[in-house]
Request: fold
Amino acid sequence: MLNTTTWNRLRYTLYAPGYDLVADRPLRRARRRSLGAVDWHAGQRVLIVGVGTGLDLPYMPRDIELHGIDLAPAMVRRFRDRADGLGFDATARVMDAECLDYPDDHFDVVIMHLIVSVMPRPELGLAEAHRVLVDDGQLCVMDKFQPDDRRTGWGRRALNLLTTAIATDITRQAGPLLSGAGFVIERNEPVMMGSLFRALLARKSAPSRNRT
Reply:
């Protein structure tokens, strides 16, 4: 019996050849709006968690140090090709989002597009994002979420049986997940299909220091 992580690696390897046909054009506006909220600066060290084929790259500045990870080697190869073609200083590795092989306080920005709803344990992935971000670092999230102020109805639960079999959980709530991981949410707005797709920008708050 395959565990969820192994199954995700297998199915995204299978999805890789046709991924752009499904995930590129329909999501361009949502990606642009989400990434447009980031406070970009030259030289920032940036991590994309779940890079896919690199569809976020056209909406990001080139003067950054870019790192990308994905479970599926086929996705990583396509990301490298796209990053090279667009002129990025980019490094890509096969890695599990729930166990990042990076030191603490390493990145200025972490991007998690269409990955929080896929991870088997999103609280672990977000805790890892929090760990590798510098104090006051930015977390940029765009995904399918259940509204924070509503309980999941029977219709959505029934549909979720289908969507989770394909790739994604549509019953997760962004606010509790990000707040529970220690982030301060600065922006949370719908970007596609009514309120199903939401973009969030959050900060890793610096630890308080006692004044002497």
